[in-house]
Amino acid sequence: METAGKTGLFGAAGAAGQSIAAALSAAGRQYRVIGRGRKALQTSFGSDPNAEIVTWNPDDPASVKAAAAGLHTAVYLVGVPYDQFATHPPLMQKTLDGLIAAGVQRLILIGTVYPYGRAQTMPVTESHPREPHTFKGKMRLAQENLVLDAHGHHGLETLVLRLPDFYGPGIERSFLHGVFEGAARGTRAQMIGPIDVPHEFVFMPDVGPVVETLTRTPPAYGRVLHLAGAGTITQREVAEKAYALAGRAPKLMVAGKPTLRVMGLFNPVMRELVEMHYLVTDPLVLDDTALGTLIGPIRKTSYEEGIARSFEAARTAVARAA
Fold first, then answer.
1. Exposed site from 70, 89, 107, 292, fewest CB < 10 Å?
2. Nearest residue to 73 (alpha-carbon basis) of 226, 288, 221
């Protein structure tokens, strides 16, 4: 392990950015949060003396270079609307150009399982073929290839860290958020089924410490690594545990693929979910042995604890709103 220079989080306002920022701050490290709007960054990070807030326009090369100035490591977390995945590769290329122009030495892309396509072996290791059959998978693959191909050029080292679906306290863009909200409110939870298939979820607060470690682990670069969840669980089990914490019987409304198709006629995001529905029917489970070998034991929050913490956050939010 080495003493790392300053890390910048591009697209910091989301769940992963907040987890990584918390880990950097806990390690006493100065870091930079970068986003399109100052207000969201100020809300999330304004009270942390270790955080430097910078805004950028990812479509402007000069803005990317300015946002990256003085950074040793960049962590790329930039999301795009679910129906605009074609923008992933060009955004990545512009960011790479700006990072290189600014002299950044390392880049970590927080990636997804989409580039693998359907699982051909289980669990899935980093050597699994990348053969996406969906448009979103192809766009994520193109994005990843830009990052991996940039390794070793212009003084830049790169790494792709792949995560499964995630959940955690207050994380609205999680498959499971509706369950915690429904349990806290005593209302029906909207879920995407089937809900009895074992699925893998990573507890988002566990991600930050891993990324913080990787920013100062030179052998990690020039490759893909996986961070897996704490085993598998079914969505129904999550719902049963969450509603039990509320002292209630689960009330669930489960939408399968046909329902998503109908909803997609009116809602573009629902329409896009149809393409990725295979990950609900045939979930892909990651093997992160390589990561553990590299950095040592990985702290993983149990589903029991993660569900309890997520439910408590939902209950607090409901009480505050009331």
1. 70
2. 221
Q: How far is the CA of 44 from the CAs of 13, 51, 70, 263, in angstroms?
A: 7, 10, 23, 33
Tokens of residue 120, six digits: 């051909």
Token pair recorded at residue 251: 């009330």
Give the Cα separation of 232 and 184 in Å (integer).
Answer: 24
Strand pairing partners for 189? 252
**E strands, 96-164, where?**
106-111, 157-162
Burial letters 195-217, b for 16+ CB under 10 A, else e: beeebbbbbbbbbbbbbbbbbbb
pLDDT at 3: 64
pLDDT band at residue 151, thresholds of 50, 70 and 90? very high
> Can you give the pLDDT at residue 256?
78
pTM (global) more than 0.85: yes
Q: Please give, one letter per residue, the 3-state secondary structure of 59-112.
A: CCHHHHHHHHCCCCEEEECCCCCCCCHHHHHHHHHHHHHHHHHHCCCEEEEEEC
Q: Computed over its alpha carbons, how large is the radius of gyration of the chain?
A: 19
